[in-house]
Structures are given as structure tokens and as C-alpha cells.
Amino acid sequence: MRQMLRRKYTRERLAREQNVTFQHTNSAREQSQQACQ
């Protein structure tokens, strides 16, 4: 039971980290597009 909770917590943390990195790359891409314009 505790292992399942830990796995779920790890999955949520991984998803949150991926979301943060995705937002970071997204903002960087927008800045590069603005620089091109």
C-alpha cells in the first residue's frame, strides 16, 4: 500500500517537473520567435 502511494507521488512529481520544463521550453521558443520578428 505504501509503495503504491509512493509510486503515485513519484508519478505526480515527474509530471509536474515535465510540465515545468515544457513551460520553460515553450517560453524560450516564444522569445526566440519574438527575436526573429
Describe, in plain words, how this protein is organized in 3D:
It is rod-shaped, with a radius of gyration of 16 Å. The longest helix has 35 residues, at 2-36. The mean pLDDT is 79. It has one domain (1-37). It contains one helix and no strands. The chain has one helix spanning 2-36. The chain has 37 residues and is mainly alpha-helical.
Arithmetic mean of pLDDT: 79
Roughly how many Å is the radius of gyration?
A: 16 Å
Strand portion: under 5%
SSE topology string: H
Number of helices: 1
Spatial shape: rod-shaped
Unreliable spans are none
Separation, N- and C-terminal Cα atoms? 54 Å
Number of domains: 1
Q: Which structural class fits the helix and strand makeup?
A: mainly alpha
Q: Helix fraction?
A: over 70%
Q: Please count the beta strands (DSSP E, at least 2 residues each).
A: 0
Major sheet details = none
Biased composition (Polar residues): 18-37
Biased composition (Basic residues): 1-10
Region (Disordered): 1-37
Task: Record keyword descriptors for this entry.
single chain, rod-shaped, mainly alpha, 37 residues
Q: What is the element layout, followed by pairings?
A:
Elements: H1 2-36
Provide a brief overview of the structure:
Residues 18-37 have a biased composition (Polar residues). The protein has 37 residues and is mainly α.
